[in-house]
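Hello,

I think I submitted the 1-deoxynojirimycin job twice by accident. Can you confirm which output corresponds to this input? Input:
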Amino acid sequence: MKKTWWKESVVYQIYPRSFNDSNGDGIGDLRGIIEKLDYLKTLGINVIWLSPVYQSPNDDNGYDISDYQAIMAEFGTMVDWEELLAEMHKREMKLIMDLVVNHTSDEHAWFVESRKSKDNRYRDYYIWRPGKDGKEPNNWESSFSGSAWQYDEATGEYFLHLFSKKQPDLNWENEKVREEIYNMMTWWLDKGIDGFRMDVINFISKVPGLPDGDPVPGKKYVSGHKYYMNGPRIHEFLHEMNQEVLSKYDIMTVGEMPGATVEQAKLYTDPERKELNMVFTFEHMDLDSGPNGKWDLRPLKLIDLKENITKWQTGLHGVGWNSLYLNNHDQPRLVSRFGNDKEYRVESAKMLATFLHMLQGTPYIYQGEEIGMTNVRFDSIDDYKDIEILNMYKEKVIEGNEPVEKVMESIYVKGRDNARTPMQWNDSEHAGFTTGKPWIKVNPNYKEINAEQAMADGNSIYHYYRKLIQLRKNHPIIVYGDYKLLDKENEQIFAYLRSYNGERLLVVNNFTADTVEFRMPVGEFTPTSLLISNYEVEANLPSETLTLRPYETRVYFGK
Ligand code: NOJ
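Support: Only one job matched these inputs. Its output is below.
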Protein backbone atom coordinates (compact mmCIF):
# COMPACT_ATOMS: atom_id res chain seq x y z
CA MET A 1 0.00 0.00 0.00
CA LYS A 2 1.36 3.40 -0.95
CA LYS A 3 2.21 5.64 2.00
CA THR A 4 0.79 9.16 1.87
CA TRP A 5 0.58 12.08 4.32
CA TRP A 6 -3.20 12.10 4.35
CA LYS A 7 -3.35 8.46 5.44
CA GLU A 8 -1.08 9.32 8.37
CA SER A 9 -2.95 12.48 9.41
CA VAL A 10 -5.44 13.22 12.15
CA VAL A 11 -8.03 15.82 11.15
CA TYR A 12 -9.83 18.28 13.43
CA GLN A 13 -13.12 19.70 12.20
CA ILE A 14 -14.00 23.29 13.04
CA TYR A 15 -17.58 24.51 12.78
CA PRO A 16 -16.63 28.19 12.77
CA ARG A 17 -19.90 29.64 13.99
CA SER A 18 -19.56 27.77 17.28
CA PHE A 19 -15.80 27.60 17.82
CA ASN A 20 -14.49 30.88 19.24
CA ASP A 21 -15.75 34.45 18.97
CA SER A 22 -13.04 37.14 18.99
CA ASN A 23 -15.19 40.26 18.62
CA GLY A 24 -18.11 39.78 20.99
CA ASP A 25 -20.90 39.51 18.41
CA GLY A 26 -21.88 36.06 19.66
CA ILE A 27 -20.70 34.30 16.48
CA GLY A 28 -17.42 32.42 16.15
CA ASP A 29 -14.97 33.87 13.61
CA LEU A 30 -11.63 33.45 11.83
CA ARG A 31 -9.60 35.50 14.33
CA GLY A 32 -11.17 33.36 17.03
CA ILE A 33 -9.73 30.29 15.31
CA ILE A 34 -6.28 31.90 15.03
CA GLU A 35 -6.35 32.46 18.83
CA LYS A 36 -6.82 28.74 19.37
CA LEU A 37 -4.25 27.29 16.94
CA ASP A 38 -1.78 26.62 19.73
CA TYR A 39 -4.44 24.66 21.60
CA LEU A 40 -4.86 22.49 18.48
CA LYS A 41 -1.11 22.18 17.98
CA THR A 42 -0.79 20.89 21.56
CA LEU A 43 -3.54 18.37 20.86
CA GLY A 44 -1.34 17.10 18.03
CA ILE A 45 -3.65 17.21 15.03
CA ASN A 46 -2.07 18.20 11.72
CA VAL A 47 -5.06 18.93 9.46
CA ILE A 48 -8.04 21.23 9.99
CA TRP A 49 -11.26 20.83 8.03
CA LEU A 50 -13.03 24.15 8.14
CA SER A 51 -16.80 24.02 7.61
CA PRO A 52 -17.91 26.76 5.15
CA VAL A 53 -16.71 30.32 5.77
CA TYR A 54 -17.90 31.72 2.43
CA GLN A 55 -20.42 34.50 1.92
CA SER A 56 -23.83 33.13 2.76
CA PRO A 57 -27.28 34.25 3.92
CA ASN A 58 -27.02 31.41 6.48
CA ASP A 59 -30.21 29.56 5.78
CA ASP A 60 -28.19 26.41 6.51
CA ASN A 61 -25.28 27.97 8.43
CA GLY A 62 -23.00 28.53 5.47
CA TYR A 63 -23.89 25.41 3.45
CA ASP A 64 -25.85 27.83 1.24
CA ILE A 65 -23.15 29.85 -0.51
CA SER A 66 -23.85 33.12 -2.31
CA ASP A 67 -20.23 33.82 -3.31
CA TYR A 68 -17.60 31.06 -3.41
CA GLN A 69 -14.75 33.56 -3.52
CA ALA A 70 -15.72 35.83 -0.63
CA ILE A 71 -15.63 35.39 3.15
CA MET A 72 -18.79 35.70 5.26
CA ALA A 73 -18.68 39.13 6.92
CA GLU A 74 -19.64 37.66 10.33
CA PHE A 75 -16.51 35.51 10.18
CA GLY A 76 -14.09 38.26 9.11
CA THR A 77 -12.33 39.20 5.90
CA MET A 78 -10.18 37.57 3.24
CA VAL A 79 -7.17 39.13 4.99
CA ASP A 80 -8.14 37.30 8.20
CA TRP A 81 -8.50 34.09 6.23
CA GLU A 82 -5.06 34.54 4.64
CA GLU A 83 -3.59 35.10 8.08
CA LEU A 84 -5.29 31.96 9.36
CA LEU A 85 -3.75 29.92 6.54
CA ALA A 86 -0.29 31.44 7.12
CA GLU A 87 -0.49 30.83 10.89
CA MET A 88 -1.53 27.24 10.27
CA HIS A 89 1.25 26.56 7.80
CA LYS A 90 3.74 28.12 10.23
CA ARG A 91 2.64 25.44 12.71
CA GLU A 92 2.84 22.71 10.07
CA MET A 93 -0.90 22.26 9.94
CA LYS A 94 -2.81 21.80 6.71
CA LEU A 95 -6.12 23.40 5.78
CA ILE A 96 -8.97 21.55 4.09
CA MET A 97 -11.80 23.80 2.89
CA ASP A 98 -15.43 22.74 2.57
CA LEU A 99 -16.58 22.54 -1.04
CA VAL A 100 -20.35 22.84 -1.40
CA VAL A 101 -21.16 22.42 -5.09
CA ASN A 102 -24.22 20.23 -5.24
CA HIS A 103 -26.13 23.47 -4.70
CA THR A 104 -25.61 27.18 -4.14
CA SER A 105 -27.63 29.74 -2.23
CA ASP A 106 -30.63 31.20 -4.06
CA GLU A 107 -28.82 34.50 -3.48
CA HIS A 108 -25.83 33.42 -5.60
CA ALA A 109 -25.46 35.67 -8.66
CA TRP A 110 -25.95 32.65 -10.96
CA PHE A 111 -29.34 31.85 -9.45
CA VAL A 112 -30.43 35.48 -9.30
CA GLU A 113 -29.91 35.51 -13.07
CA SER A 114 -31.23 32.01 -13.66
CA ARG A 115 -34.66 32.72 -12.21
CA LYS A 116 -35.15 35.90 -14.28
CA SER A 117 -36.27 34.30 -17.55
CA LYS A 118 -36.29 30.99 -19.42
CA ASP A 119 -33.73 32.27 -21.91
CA ASN A 120 -31.32 33.79 -19.41
CA ARG A 121 -27.78 32.56 -20.04
CA TYR A 122 -27.67 31.15 -16.48
CA ARG A 123 -31.05 29.39 -16.76
CA ASP A 124 -29.46 26.02 -17.37
CA TYR A 125 -27.07 26.35 -14.41
CA TYR A 126 -29.91 24.97 -12.27
CA ILE A 127 -32.55 22.28 -12.63
CA TRP A 128 -35.83 23.86 -13.80
CA ARG A 129 -38.95 21.92 -14.79
CA PRO A 130 -42.59 22.77 -15.54
CA GLY A 131 -45.17 21.41 -13.11
CA LYS A 132 -47.03 18.13 -13.77
CA ASP A 133 -50.84 18.22 -13.61
CA GLY A 134 -50.68 21.39 -11.54
CA LYS A 135 -48.27 19.80 -9.06
CA GLU A 136 -44.51 19.51 -8.56
CA PRO A 137 -42.49 17.88 -11.40
CA ASN A 138 -41.98 14.75 -9.26
CA ASN A 139 -42.68 13.43 -5.75
CA TRP A 140 -39.18 13.76 -4.24
CA GLU A 141 -38.91 14.86 -0.65
CA SER A 142 -36.30 17.41 0.44
CA SER A 143 -33.80 16.35 3.13
CA PHE A 144 -35.21 19.21 5.17
CA SER A 145 -38.90 18.11 4.88
CA GLY A 146 -41.55 18.95 2.29
CA SER A 147 -41.21 18.85 -1.49
CA ALA A 148 -37.77 19.05 -3.14
CA TRP A 149 -39.28 21.49 -5.66
CA GLN A 150 -40.07 25.17 -5.32
CA TYR A 151 -42.40 27.02 -7.65
CA ASP A 152 -41.04 30.31 -8.97
CA GLU A 153 -43.52 32.99 -10.02
CA ALA A 154 -41.27 34.82 -12.47
CA THR A 155 -41.20 32.04 -15.07
CA GLY A 156 -43.96 29.73 -13.78
CA GLU A 157 -41.57 26.77 -13.37
CA TYR A 158 -40.18 24.81 -10.45
CA PHE A 159 -36.52 24.46 -9.43
CA LEU A 160 -35.03 21.44 -7.67
CA HIS A 161 -33.60 21.76 -4.13
CA LEU A 162 -32.60 18.54 -2.40
CA PHE A 163 -32.02 20.61 0.77
CA SER A 164 -33.73 23.90 1.74
CA LYS A 165 -35.62 25.99 -0.78
CA LYS A 166 -32.79 28.50 -0.46
CA GLN A 167 -30.34 25.84 -1.72
CA PRO A 168 -31.13 25.26 -5.42
CA ASP A 169 -29.29 22.28 -6.96
CA LEU A 170 -26.72 23.04 -9.65
CA ASN A 171 -27.07 21.35 -13.00
CA TRP A 172 -23.87 19.32 -13.41
CA GLU A 173 -25.00 18.14 -16.84
CA ASN A 174 -24.11 21.65 -18.01
CA GLU A 175 -20.42 21.72 -18.81
CA LYS A 176 -20.23 25.46 -18.18
CA VAL A 177 -21.23 24.82 -14.58
CA ARG A 178 -18.47 22.25 -14.21
CA GLU A 179 -15.93 24.59 -15.74
CA GLU A 180 -16.89 27.46 -13.39
CA ILE A 181 -16.55 25.14 -10.40
CA TYR A 182 -13.18 23.79 -11.50
CA ASN A 183 -11.92 27.35 -11.97
CA MET A 184 -13.12 28.30 -8.51
CA MET A 185 -11.42 25.23 -6.98
CA THR A 186 -8.18 26.09 -8.77
CA TRP A 187 -8.40 29.64 -7.43
CA TRP A 188 -8.51 28.35 -3.83
CA LEU A 189 -5.78 25.78 -4.39
CA ASP A 190 -3.55 28.49 -5.83
CA LYS A 191 -4.10 30.44 -2.63
CA GLY A 192 -2.35 27.55 -0.93
CA ILE A 193 -5.03 25.37 0.67
CA ASP A 194 -4.33 21.67 1.16
CA GLY A 195 -7.53 20.06 -0.02
CA PHE A 196 -11.29 19.85 0.01
CA ARG A 197 -14.04 18.16 1.97
CA MET A 198 -16.82 17.80 -0.60
CA ASP A 199 -20.38 18.26 0.60
CA VAL A 200 -22.84 15.54 -0.56
CA ILE A 201 -20.67 15.15 -3.63
CA ASN A 202 -22.27 11.85 -4.65
CA PHE A 203 -25.58 13.70 -5.24
CA ILE A 204 -24.38 15.78 -8.21
CA SER A 205 -25.42 13.40 -10.99
CA LYS A 206 -29.19 12.89 -11.28
CA VAL A 207 -30.91 10.20 -13.33
CA PRO A 208 -32.21 11.87 -16.52
CA GLY A 209 -35.97 12.32 -16.50
CA LEU A 210 -35.93 12.65 -12.69
CA PRO A 211 -38.37 9.76 -12.16
CA ASP A 212 -40.80 9.61 -9.25
CA GLY A 213 -39.65 7.82 -6.10
CA ASP A 214 -41.53 4.66 -5.03
CA PRO A 215 -44.82 5.68 -3.41
CA VAL A 216 -45.24 5.22 0.33
CA PRO A 217 -48.84 4.95 1.61
CA GLY A 218 -49.87 8.10 3.45
CA LYS A 219 -46.88 10.13 2.26
CA LYS A 220 -47.09 12.94 -0.27
CA TYR A 221 -43.35 13.29 -0.81
CA VAL A 222 -40.97 10.33 -0.75
CA SER A 223 -37.30 9.54 -1.02
CA GLY A 224 -35.76 10.09 -4.45
CA HIS A 225 -32.40 8.75 -3.24
CA LYS A 226 -31.99 6.09 -5.86
CA TYR A 227 -32.26 8.72 -8.58
CA TYR A 228 -29.50 10.98 -7.32
CA MET A 229 -27.23 9.12 -4.87
CA ASN A 230 -24.23 7.72 -6.81
CA GLY A 231 -25.98 8.74 -10.03
CA PRO A 232 -25.14 7.64 -13.59
CA ARG A 233 -22.40 10.20 -14.36
CA ILE A 234 -20.88 10.58 -10.88
CA HIS A 235 -17.63 8.73 -11.62
CA GLU A 236 -17.21 10.58 -14.89
CA PHE A 237 -17.64 13.95 -13.13
CA LEU A 238 -15.24 13.13 -10.30
CA HIS A 239 -12.64 11.77 -12.69
CA GLU A 240 -12.94 14.90 -14.79
CA MET A 241 -12.58 17.07 -11.66
CA ASN A 242 -9.52 15.04 -10.72
CA GLN A 243 -7.92 15.48 -14.12
CA GLU A 244 -8.81 19.16 -14.49
CA VAL A 245 -7.94 20.22 -10.94
CA LEU A 246 -7.10 17.79 -8.14
CA SER A 247 -4.30 15.83 -9.80
CA LYS A 248 -2.28 19.02 -10.24
CA TYR A 249 -1.73 19.45 -6.48
CA ASP A 250 -0.51 17.36 -3.53
CA ILE A 251 -3.76 17.60 -1.64
CA MET A 252 -6.26 15.64 0.39
CA THR A 253 -9.80 15.09 -0.86
CA VAL A 254 -12.69 13.59 1.04
CA GLY A 255 -16.16 13.12 -0.37
CA GLU A 256 -19.20 13.19 1.87
CA MET A 257 -21.23 10.29 0.49
CA PRO A 258 -24.55 9.37 2.05
CA GLY A 259 -25.77 6.07 0.63
CA ALA A 260 -22.37 4.93 -0.68
CA THR A 261 -21.72 1.21 -0.23
CA VAL A 262 -18.31 -0.42 0.19
CA GLU A 263 -18.34 -1.39 -3.48
CA GLN A 264 -19.02 2.19 -4.53
CA ALA A 265 -16.45 3.55 -2.07
CA LYS A 266 -13.83 1.33 -3.71
CA LEU A 267 -14.59 2.97 -7.05
CA TYR A 268 -14.44 6.46 -5.55
CA THR A 269 -11.14 5.94 -3.71
CA ASP A 270 -9.08 3.40 -5.66
CA PRO A 271 -6.04 5.55 -6.61
CA GLU A 272 -5.88 3.88 -10.03
CA ARG A 273 -9.24 5.36 -10.95
CA LYS A 274 -8.16 8.92 -10.12
CA GLU A 275 -11.20 10.27 -8.34
CA LEU A 276 -10.95 11.07 -4.57
CA ASN A 277 -8.70 10.03 -1.66
CA MET A 278 -11.37 8.97 0.80
CA VAL A 279 -15.07 9.12 1.63
CA PHE A 280 -17.34 9.73 4.58
CA THR A 281 -19.58 6.70 4.72
CA PHE A 282 -22.97 6.92 6.48
CA GLU A 283 -23.94 3.32 7.08
CA HIS A 284 -22.71 3.27 10.67
CA MET A 285 -24.62 6.50 11.34
CA ASP A 286 -27.90 4.84 10.31
CA LEU A 287 -27.77 1.75 12.54
CA ASP A 288 -29.83 3.38 15.28
CA SER A 289 -32.60 4.55 12.92
CA GLY A 290 -35.78 2.71 11.98
CA PRO A 291 -37.37 2.42 8.52
CA ASN A 292 -38.76 5.96 8.73
CA GLY A 293 -35.37 7.64 8.82
CA LYS A 294 -33.21 9.43 11.31
CA TRP A 295 -35.98 10.63 13.65
CA ASP A 296 -37.33 7.08 13.97
CA LEU A 297 -35.26 6.12 17.03
CA ARG A 298 -33.92 2.58 17.52
CA PRO A 299 -31.44 1.29 20.09
CA LEU A 300 -28.09 0.44 18.53
CA LYS A 301 -27.09 -3.22 18.54
CA LEU A 302 -23.35 -3.62 19.00
CA ILE A 303 -23.41 -6.68 16.72
CA ASP A 304 -24.67 -4.48 13.87
CA LEU A 305 -21.91 -1.92 14.44
CA LYS A 306 -19.30 -4.70 14.47
CA GLU A 307 -20.63 -6.18 11.28
CA ASN A 308 -20.69 -2.82 9.54
CA ILE A 309 -17.27 -1.58 10.63
CA THR A 310 -15.75 -4.95 9.74
CA LYS A 311 -17.29 -4.88 6.28
CA TRP A 312 -15.68 -1.48 5.61
CA GLN A 313 -12.32 -2.29 7.23
CA THR A 314 -11.83 -5.45 5.22
CA GLY A 315 -13.56 -4.23 2.05
CA LEU A 316 -11.41 -1.15 1.50
CA HIS A 317 -8.13 -2.58 2.78
CA GLY A 318 -5.50 -2.51 0.07
CA VAL A 319 -7.89 -0.93 -2.46
CA GLY A 320 -9.15 2.45 -1.27
CA TRP A 321 -9.27 4.51 1.90
CA ASN A 322 -11.87 5.56 4.45
CA SER A 323 -12.47 8.30 7.00
CA LEU A 324 -13.03 7.38 10.65
CA TYR A 325 -15.65 9.38 12.51
CA LEU A 326 -18.38 8.96 15.10
CA ASN A 327 -19.69 12.53 15.07
CA ASN A 328 -19.55 15.86 13.25
CA HIS A 329 -21.66 19.02 12.86
CA ASP A 330 -24.60 16.95 11.51
CA GLN A 331 -24.57 14.22 14.15
CA PRO A 332 -25.20 14.02 17.88
CA ARG A 333 -22.23 13.93 20.25
CA LEU A 334 -20.52 10.54 20.24
CA VAL A 335 -20.32 10.11 24.01
CA SER A 336 -24.08 10.67 24.32
CA ARG A 337 -24.90 8.41 21.38
CA PHE A 338 -22.54 5.46 21.75
CA GLY A 339 -21.28 5.85 25.32
CA ASN A 340 -22.62 7.02 28.65
CA ASP A 341 -22.60 10.78 29.14
CA LYS A 342 -23.44 10.57 32.86
CA GLU A 343 -21.66 8.20 35.24
CA TYR A 344 -19.06 6.99 32.74
CA ARG A 345 -18.60 10.04 30.54
CA VAL A 346 -14.81 10.11 30.81
CA GLU A 347 -14.33 6.34 30.59
CA SER A 348 -16.70 5.87 27.66
CA ALA A 349 -15.37 8.86 25.71
CA LYS A 350 -11.85 7.43 25.99
CA MET A 351 -13.03 3.96 25.03
CA LEU A 352 -14.84 5.23 21.92
CA ALA A 353 -11.81 7.27 20.91
CA THR A 354 -9.58 4.21 21.24
CA PHE A 355 -11.99 2.03 19.31
CA LEU A 356 -12.00 4.56 16.44
CA HIS A 357 -8.36 5.69 16.39
CA MET A 358 -6.99 2.13 16.32
CA LEU A 359 -8.87 1.35 13.09
CA GLN A 360 -7.54 1.78 9.57
CA GLY A 361 -8.48 5.10 7.98
CA THR A 362 -7.98 8.80 8.67
CA PRO A 363 -9.51 9.84 12.02
CA TYR A 364 -11.60 13.01 12.31
CA ILE A 365 -12.12 14.76 15.65
CA TYR A 366 -15.08 17.13 15.80
CA GLN A 367 -14.60 20.25 17.95
CA GLY A 368 -15.39 19.54 21.60
CA GLU A 369 -15.14 15.77 21.16
CA GLU A 370 -11.64 15.94 22.66
CA ILE A 371 -13.07 17.27 25.93
CA GLY A 372 -16.08 14.95 25.96
CA MET A 373 -18.79 17.50 25.18
CA THR A 374 -22.30 16.02 25.34
CA ASN A 375 -25.72 16.40 23.73
CA VAL A 376 -27.98 19.18 25.01
CA ARG A 377 -31.68 19.27 25.99
CA PHE A 378 -33.27 22.68 25.52
CA ASP A 379 -36.79 22.85 27.00
CA SER A 380 -38.20 25.01 24.23
CA ILE A 381 -38.14 24.52 20.48
CA ASP A 382 -37.44 28.27 20.29
CA ASP A 383 -33.89 27.64 21.52
CA TYR A 384 -33.14 25.45 18.49
CA LYS A 385 -31.68 27.07 15.35
CA ASP A 386 -31.11 24.26 12.85
CA ILE A 387 -33.31 24.40 9.74
CA GLU A 388 -33.57 20.61 9.62
CA ILE A 389 -34.92 20.48 13.20
CA LEU A 390 -37.26 23.45 12.75
CA ASN A 391 -38.76 22.21 9.48
CA MET A 392 -39.27 18.71 10.88
CA TYR A 393 -40.93 20.13 14.04
CA LYS A 394 -43.24 22.29 11.93
CA GLU A 395 -44.23 19.35 9.74
CA LYS A 396 -44.78 16.87 12.58
CA VAL A 397 -46.08 19.01 15.44
CA ILE A 398 -47.59 22.18 14.00
CA GLU A 399 -48.99 20.83 10.72
CA GLY A 400 -49.18 17.17 11.73
CA ASN A 401 -50.44 15.61 14.92
CA GLU A 402 -47.44 13.91 16.47
CA PRO A 403 -47.03 14.38 20.22
CA VAL A 404 -44.62 17.19 21.15
CA GLU A 405 -42.83 15.01 23.73
CA LYS A 406 -42.03 12.33 21.17
CA VAL A 407 -40.70 14.84 18.65
CA MET A 408 -38.64 16.69 21.29
CA GLU A 409 -37.15 13.37 22.39
CA SER A 410 -36.04 12.64 18.84
CA ILE A 411 -34.42 16.11 18.70
CA TYR A 412 -32.61 15.42 21.99
CA VAL A 413 -31.25 12.17 20.59
CA LYS A 414 -30.54 13.04 16.95
CA GLY A 415 -30.78 16.81 16.38
CA ARG A 416 -27.84 18.54 14.70
CA ASP A 417 -27.82 21.36 17.26
CA ASN A 418 -26.42 18.85 19.78
CA ALA A 419 -23.11 19.34 18.02
CA ARG A 420 -23.52 23.05 17.37
CA THR A 421 -23.70 24.49 20.89
CA PRO A 422 -20.62 26.68 21.47
CA MET A 423 -17.25 25.14 22.23
CA GLN A 424 -16.74 25.09 26.01
CA TRP A 425 -13.42 26.80 26.70
CA ASN A 426 -13.68 27.54 30.42
CA ASP A 427 -16.16 27.98 33.28
CA SER A 428 -16.72 31.73 32.81
CA GLU A 429 -19.95 33.14 31.38
CA HIS A 430 -20.94 31.59 27.99
CA ALA A 431 -18.14 29.05 28.51
CA GLY A 432 -15.56 31.59 27.35
CA PHE A 433 -16.88 31.28 23.80
CA THR A 434 -18.01 34.92 23.54
CA THR A 435 -18.29 38.09 25.62
CA GLY A 436 -21.59 38.82 23.83
CA LYS A 437 -24.79 36.83 23.52
CA PRO A 438 -24.08 33.49 21.81
CA TRP A 439 -26.10 32.82 18.62
CA ILE A 440 -27.19 29.52 20.17
CA LYS A 441 -27.29 28.71 23.88
CA VAL A 442 -24.31 27.14 25.59
CA ASN A 443 -24.73 23.65 27.05
CA PRO A 444 -25.35 24.26 30.79
CA ASN A 445 -22.75 21.64 31.73
CA TYR A 446 -19.86 23.95 30.74
CA LYS A 447 -18.90 24.56 34.38
CA GLU A 448 -17.71 20.94 34.63
CA ILE A 449 -16.91 20.20 31.00
CA ASN A 450 -14.50 22.68 29.44
CA ALA A 451 -11.09 22.84 27.79
CA GLU A 452 -9.36 24.67 30.64
CA GLN A 453 -10.36 21.96 33.11
CA ALA A 454 -9.38 19.23 30.64
CA MET A 455 -5.95 20.68 29.98
CA ALA A 456 -5.23 20.99 33.72
CA ASP A 457 -6.23 17.39 34.49
CA GLY A 458 -3.59 14.86 33.41
CA ASN A 459 -6.25 12.15 33.35
CA SER A 460 -8.67 13.99 31.09
CA ILE A 461 -10.17 12.95 27.78
CA TYR A 462 -8.12 15.72 26.15
CA HIS A 463 -4.78 14.25 27.31
CA TYR A 464 -5.95 10.81 26.29
CA TYR A 465 -6.61 12.05 22.74
CA ARG A 466 -3.13 13.59 22.68
CA LYS A 467 -1.72 10.18 23.48
CA LEU A 468 -3.81 8.42 20.82
CA ILE A 469 -2.71 10.92 18.16
CA GLN A 470 0.91 10.43 19.18
CA LEU A 471 0.60 6.65 18.98
CA ARG A 472 -0.64 6.87 15.40
CA LYS A 473 2.43 8.95 14.51
CA ASN A 474 4.79 6.47 16.13
CA HIS A 475 3.34 3.15 14.99
CA PRO A 476 2.77 2.49 11.28
CA ILE A 477 0.74 -0.60 12.19
CA ILE A 478 -2.10 1.69 13.31
CA VAL A 479 -2.21 3.34 9.90
CA TYR A 480 -1.29 0.49 7.57
CA GLY A 481 -2.00 -2.78 9.40
CA ASP A 482 -4.77 -5.14 8.37
CA TYR A 483 -7.83 -5.84 10.52
CA LYS A 484 -9.56 -8.88 11.91
CA LEU A 485 -12.69 -8.96 14.04
CA LEU A 486 -12.60 -11.17 17.15
CA ASP A 487 -15.45 -12.77 19.09
CA LYS A 488 -18.05 -11.80 16.50
CA GLU A 489 -21.13 -12.83 18.51
CA ASN A 490 -20.17 -10.98 21.69
CA GLU A 491 -22.88 -8.37 22.31
CA GLN A 492 -20.87 -6.29 24.76
CA ILE A 493 -17.29 -6.29 23.57
CA PHE A 494 -15.89 -5.00 20.28
CA ALA A 495 -12.41 -6.52 19.91
CA TYR A 496 -10.13 -6.69 16.91
CA LEU A 497 -6.60 -7.52 15.86
CA ARG A 498 -4.35 -5.48 13.60
CA SER A 499 -1.19 -6.83 12.01
CA TYR A 500 1.64 -5.36 9.98
CA ASN A 501 5.17 -6.52 9.19
CA GLY A 502 5.16 -9.21 11.89
CA GLU A 503 3.79 -6.86 14.56
CA ARG A 504 0.35 -7.29 16.13
CA LEU A 505 -2.08 -5.16 18.09
CA LEU A 506 -5.03 -6.34 20.12
CA VAL A 507 -7.77 -3.76 20.73
CA VAL A 508 -10.50 -4.67 23.24
CA ASN A 509 -13.43 -2.37 24.02
CA ASN A 510 -16.24 -2.87 26.50
CA PHE A 511 -19.23 -0.96 25.10
CA THR A 512 -21.35 -1.41 28.26
CA ALA A 513 -21.59 -0.27 31.88
CA ASP A 514 -21.21 -3.90 33.05
CA THR A 515 -18.08 -5.74 34.11
CA VAL A 516 -17.47 -8.36 31.44
CA GLU A 517 -15.02 -11.15 30.71
CA PHE A 518 -13.13 -11.33 27.45
CA ARG A 519 -11.56 -14.60 26.30
CA MET A 520 -8.08 -13.85 24.95
CA PRO A 521 -7.44 -15.12 21.40
CA VAL A 522 -4.93 -17.69 22.66
CA GLY A 523 -2.90 -19.14 19.80
CA GLU A 524 -3.54 -16.10 17.66
CA PHE A 525 -2.05 -13.44 19.86
CA THR A 526 0.42 -13.29 22.74
CA PRO A 527 0.62 -9.90 24.46
CA THR A 528 4.05 -8.41 25.03
CA SER A 529 3.17 -4.94 26.38
CA LEU A 530 0.28 -2.61 27.08
CA LEU A 531 0.05 0.31 24.65
CA ILE A 532 -2.81 2.33 26.12
CA SER A 533 -5.81 1.89 28.45
CA ASN A 534 -8.41 4.07 30.14
CA TYR A 535 -8.13 2.56 33.65
CA GLU A 536 -5.19 1.66 35.91
CA VAL A 537 -4.08 -1.79 34.74
CA GLU A 538 -2.26 -4.56 36.65
CA ALA A 539 1.39 -5.08 35.67
CA ASN A 540 1.12 -8.73 34.53
CA LEU A 541 -0.06 -9.41 31.01
CA PRO A 542 -3.35 -11.27 30.49
CA SER A 543 -3.16 -14.90 29.41
CA GLU A 544 -6.56 -16.61 29.14
CA THR A 545 -9.13 -14.03 30.16
CA LEU A 546 -9.37 -10.31 30.62
CA THR A 547 -11.88 -8.75 33.03
CA LEU A 548 -13.08 -5.43 31.68
CA ARG A 549 -14.62 -2.76 33.89
CA PRO A 550 -17.44 -0.48 32.59
CA TYR A 551 -16.43 0.99 29.23
CA GLU A 552 -12.87 -0.24 29.69
CA THR A 553 -10.55 -0.27 26.70
CA ARG A 554 -7.11 -1.83 26.35
CA VAL A 555 -4.64 -2.03 23.51
CA TYR A 556 -1.83 -4.59 23.68
CA PHE A 557 1.20 -5.03 21.52
CA GLY A 558 2.03 -8.64 20.85
CA LYS A 559 3.13 -11.47 18.61
C1 NOJ B 1 -24.15 18.07 4.35
C2 NOJ B 1 -23.66 19.06 5.37
O1 NOJ B 1 -22.74 18.45 6.21
C3 NOJ B 1 -24.88 19.59 6.08
O2 NOJ B 1 -24.55 20.35 7.21
C4 NOJ B 1 -25.70 20.36 5.09
O3 NOJ B 1 -26.91 20.77 5.69
C5 NOJ B 1 -26.02 19.55 3.85
N1 NOJ B 1 -24.92 18.76 3.37
C6 NOJ B 1 -26.44 20.46 2.73
O4 NOJ B 1 -25.34 21.22 2.29
